[in-house]
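User: Please predict the structure of the protein below. I'd like the answer in structure-token form so I can feed it into my own downstream comparison script.

Assistant: Understood. Taking the following sequence of 285 residues as input:
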Amino acid sequence: MVKVTFTSHNKEIYCNKGDKLLDVARNADIFIDAPCNGNVSCGKCKVRLIKGKVDTEKTHHIKDEEWNQGYILACNTKVIEDIDIEVPSKLSSSMYGMKIEGSDNRKDKEVFDRAKKIIKENNFKFETNIEKTYMELDEPTLDDNISDIDRIERHISNTKAITEFLNNHPQVAWVNYPGLEGNKYYELGQKYLPKGAGSIFTFGIKGGLEAGKKFIESLKIFSHLANVADAKSLVIHPASTTHAQLNEEEQESAGVRPDMIRMSVGIEDINDLLWDIDQALKATL
């Protein structure tokens, strides 16, 4: 047995050599955000190794300066000896203080209380966002109870503004969105999707593969995730992540170009999203 000390929580927990750090944290009721469920695709489960050694490796989610400071991915780390770990405050929260993604209203306390009761009564093992799985919410909990219709309209209006912005940006080579005038599917979009062409689209960044990776790393508001249609804005560079195991010819045959960025636009303030995209594009120069 080896000991893991979470200095940020004043907690010590013993585990077996070779146990995954993310599982150790969850067994200690410490919330570490890992929406990719441990497949090393999102890079959100960063923690800092304060003392000791672990079995891990650097990924593209960790910048050189972070790596030098001891930052690692909890889902990509095995415990091999006694260690001290610090969970950054933006991720540091037990299940009793964790917030449902996108939720920020007075319903939270009631949701958490009911979730804790269900977890205890059924002896469920704690997992990220277990409240979502086992809770039956009385009303929407997004953006001060924004209605589903309002939410979809926000998705579409934000996407329209962003695609138009990108279509005129000097660092962008192309934009593929059926709601954008001039797109080859525009007429079909107007016919079959008269209220809007959704919130998911792709665009090509000038500079190819390396520019694509730099763009992703430079974003502040968009989350680097492979899923789509969330209330928060998501982005991914397929050539360096989901399709990285394929060679260039195989990627091309799958429709994945080295310059392609896929976005799923959320319901945040449009000015914030445009600022984030613009500053990230400038960072690729």
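That's the full token string. Residues 91-108, 126-147 have pLDDT under 50 and may be disordered.
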